[in-house]
Design goal:
Elements (H helix, E strand, L loop, with lengths): L3 H19 L11 H29 L2 H25 L3 H16 L21 H7 L7 E4 L3 E4 H4 L2 H4 L11 H18 L1 H8 L5 H17 L19 H11 L12
Antiparallel strand pairs: 1-2
Length: 266
């Protein structure tokens, strides 16, 4: 898996060039590739329902909640270093140092990140990524893109995918079996954390593709502007008018992207 994903990322960069040249996205028309995206979404959804959901359900029912929480902390720990790099690139050295200190604290006193000691010590997780950094630099999001297995993204966020694929513990494991085991654990644990949100989404009787797309785009925009995005005229043809309760469910699912994606963006 660790060898396949980088190759997929390189192929993706070539596709990004074609997407950028062949489809002009605007705030009112963020999804010019919708016909293709819907087909990829249907494929991802089929894989999710037939493979990932049953495995994640069994994992959740078998593994105690504290153990699952430790797995989540472990995979999030290394991302704090990547977050610190992005904070420095954004001109936020104090927050960057905080995330580095957070990583060191959880690695040493949290047993390689299995326990989140740093939050209790006043070191919150910022979880910045390269897509957010590009957004802070003024790069527009570009077209909305749904990648096979990797899930929802944008042209801007996709540029960070090859880098973020290297910020996972499994890339540092030399044994191939160990890499596959860690990748499988990360994917299944991430999907297990989203089981309740996805069930609630299924109950909404709406176009799941549209709801998830709008939730992803709104969430990413909110993160780029640190919770204070400027006012923007809504697209007439899209449903940006979901109430807060309805929007909260797909937003939770969009937070981790697709189950087999790179580390979840915040």
């Amino acid at each position: 898996m660790s060898g396949i994903l980088p190759r997929l990322a390189r192929l993706g960069l070539a596709l990004l060039l074609a997407a950028g040249l062949g489809a002009c996205a605007t705030a009112q028309r963020p999804d010019p590739l919708e016909s293709v995206n819907r087909k990829v979404f249907a494929f991802n959804d089929a894989v999710d329902r037939t493979v990932l959901v049953p495995v994640a359900t069994a994992y959740r029912d078998t593994v105690p909640a504290p153990a699952r929480a430790s797995v989540t902390h472990f995979f999030a720990n290394l991302r704090d270093v990547w977050s610190a790099v992005n904070l420095l690139l954004q001109g936020r050295p104090a927050d960057g140092f905080s995330d580095l200190l957070r990583f060191g604290t959880n690695t040493v006193f949290g047993v390689f990140g299995l326990f989140d000691v740093a939050t209790g010590l006043g070191l919150p997780r910022h979880d910045e990524d390269f897509g957010q950094t590009l957004g802070k630099w003024g790069v527009p999001p570009g077209a909305y893109i749904v990648w096979p297995l990797l899930g929802p993204s944008t042209l801007r966020d996709s540029l960070g995918m090859p880098l973020e694929m290297q910020v996972t513990p499994e890339v540092w494991v030399q044994a191939e079996a160990g890499r596959y085991a860690l990748t499988g654990l990360r994917v299944v644990n991430t999907r297990a954390n989203l089981l309740q949100a996805s069930r609630m989404l299924d109950d909404l009787a709406l176009d799941r593709y549209t709801v998830l797309r709008n939730a992803y785009l709104q969430r990413r925009r909110n993160l780029v502007y640190d919770g204070n995005p400027p006012e923007e005229a809504p697209a007439e043809e899209e449903r940006w008018d979901l109430d807060e309760e309805a929007a909260a469910v797909p937003a939770a699912a969009a937070a981790a992207s697709a189950p087999a994606s790179a580390p979840a963006r915040r």
